[in-house]
Sequence to fold (75 residues):
Amino acid sequence: MSALPRNVPSSTELHDVHWLRSSYSTGANNCVETARPPAGPWAGLLAVRDSKAPAGPALLFSPESWADFTAAIRS
Fold:
């Protein structure tokens, strides 16, 4: 079995996702957005993209990896 990619070249490949932005974000489009693909090969992963480039690439993380990352930057 091959491993899933860690990114998608364009976040538009992730269909039927709802991108969320932090409530701490300003209107300047200088943040990241996250989404959870509901189905397909990326279901169960967390997608992260740059809000300045909504059609640009998205990185894919397991929920555990993302939780570890965000916990590390808080401390």
User: Anything to note?
Assistant: The helical segments are 63-74. DSSP finds one helix and five strands in the chain. Strands lie at 7-8, 20-21, 32-35, 46-50, 58-61. The CA atoms of residues 29 and 53 lie 9 Å apart.
